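Example protein
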Amino acid sequence: MVEESKRDRTPIAKEIRFLEDTVDLHRMRLPRQENIRVKSVMEWDEQPTPDGRSVEIAPLLLVSFIENAFKYGISINEPCFVETRLTVEEGVLRFSCSNSVLMHNRLEASTGTGIDNIRQRLQLLYAGKHSLEVGEQEGVFSVELTMTL
């Protein structure tokens, strides 16, 4: 992935594999307890974009959302969850990531720098081709991103 990060774009299959590996790594680090729920679904229709191009994405664009979800949404002692979903159909990516908001993690409040950086990258690379919603409601932090690749 280090080599891919030097490129402007990477094949979507490589990026999906990297995101799946990231979730799996976090899952392996967690104890198997009933209070911890991790769910991840990543699907790609394996079709080119409507104009015939191969589907590519800016590398490492989504991983910070997943990293933050595990950092702020997991507890050994409290009921908690992280859920990620990524679909790519006909060159349109839909990504959602949600996690529990835990009281003890509120003390480690995020500076928001990671999300601000992603917003800037999206604006530079996908201006007019994306929609990003980030927020917290009823103890759940969620990210919803739709973008044309």
